[in-house]
Amino acid sequence: MPPSPSRPHSRGAAPSAWQALAGPRLPLTGWPWRAVAYLATGVLSGLLTLLTLLATLVLALLLVGLPLLPLTALGVGGAERRRLRLFDPAPAPTPHQVPAAPGIGAWLRLRAREPATWRELTYTVLLGTVLWPLDLLVLAVGLGLPGALLAVPVQLAADGHEAKAIKLIMVTGYPAACALALAGLLLLPVLLYPLTALAGARAALARTLLAPREAELSRRIGEVTASRARLAAAFEAERRRIERDLHDGAQQRLVALTMTLGLARYDAPAGPLADQLAKAHEQAGQVLGELRELIHGIHPQVLVDYGLGAALADAADRSVIPVTTVTTALGPGPERADPDPEDFALPRLPAAVESAAHFVAREALANVDRHSGATRARLAAHHDGRALVLTVEDDGHGGADPGRGSGLTGLADRLAVLDGTLTIISPPGGPTLLRAEIPCSALSGSSSPRTASSSAKD
Fold first, then answer.
1. Which CATH architecture has domain 301-456?
2. How far lies 395's CA from each of 360, 364, 399, in Å?
3. Relative to the CA of 298, which of 15, 20, 134, 405 has its CA 20 to 30 Å away?
C-alpha cells in the first residue's frame, strides 16, 4: 500500500527546534533543556575523545597506535549518532555498508575504503580539539552568566559585606544585588535562544558528518531493491517446488489410493465392509479434491501454461458471485460476451509478477465473496509497456479497512516486494475499488499485444 501522505501537526503537537526558535514560547518548551543536555554530554564526550586521541598518538610513536585512529573514529561515530538523539529525535542510521564476505579482514578493508570512515575520523578530531571547548563556552555564557547574576544575593548574604558579580562588579548592598539577580532572571530566557540555536547547528554538523549522505542512501536503496528482487525470485521458486512436490508426490499417491479403494469397494460383498470401503473411497476423493484446490492456489498450472490473462479468467470463474473480467495488453478495452479463450492475450510477464498479480486478484475476489455483500464484481488487468495495472471493483457496501484484518495489508506487503503499490477506495456504502500496480516489462518473445475481454458467470 502506498505510504500515506504526511499529516499536518495537530494542535497539541510539539514544534521542531527551529519552529520553536521563531516564536516567543521557546523557554516553555523542552528544546532548551534538550540543548543543554546535548551540549553538556558533548563536553564529557569531547574530553574522553581528547584523552583517547592523546593515548593513540602516544602509541603511534611506538608504531602501534596509528591503525587505531580509524577504529577510534568508528567507535566515536557510533556513540555520537546515539547521543544525537538527545537533541534531534530523527534517527541517524549508520552510513557503513555490510561486508560482502565474512571475517575481520574483509570488514577492515571495507571500512578503510568507505568515505564515511574518514568523515567520522574528521569529526572525532574536531570533537576532541574544537567542539567540546565550544560546547563548554556556550554553556558558560548561556547558563553560567545568568546563574552568576542570580547567585549575587546568596554570595552577599554569605559574606555579609560584599560580593563580586561575575568577577567584575563589586556589590555591597542588597538593592544592587537584587537588581543583578533580576537582570540574571530576565537574561536567562533571552540567552536560551542562542544556546538552542548553537546546539541545533552543532547537531546539524554531527548529522552531516556522521549520517548517510544522499549517494549512500541511494546505493543502499538500490541494494535493498536488488535484495527484494532476489527474495521474490526465491519465494516464487519455493512455491513452485512445493507445488511440484505436492503434484508429483502426495497427489499421485492419493489418486492411487482412491483407485485402490474403488476397486476394493466393488470387489467386496454387500454388507458393512462394502459400506465402510464406499465411505473411505468418498473421503479419499474429497481429500484429493481439496489437495488439487490447494495445489491450484499455490501456483495454478494455467498460469504457467497460458499466462496471467487465462489465470485471471479462471480465478473469476471460481468466484461465488458473477465476475466480469477484462484483460488488455495496451489499455482497457470493451467487454464482450462469449469470447474466444485464446483472446486472453496479456503479454507474458516475469513469473514473480504474474504470480503476485494472480494472488492479489484471487485474494481480492475472496474478500469480495466473504465481506462485501456484493452482487457483481469486475476484474480488469492491462499492461501499458511499463507496468501491470490490476483493478477489482464490486458493488458491495464498502468500508474496507486494512487495519481490521481483512488481508489487505498482506496484499500490500506482497506487492511491495516487487516495488508495487496497492490503492483501496472503499467509502461506506460502496462501491469498493482495489487497484494494484506493479512496474514491469513484458518478456522478450512473449505473445504480441492484443486486447481481450471476458464476462464470467453472466
1. 2-Layer Sandwich (3.30)
2. 19, 14, 12
3. 405
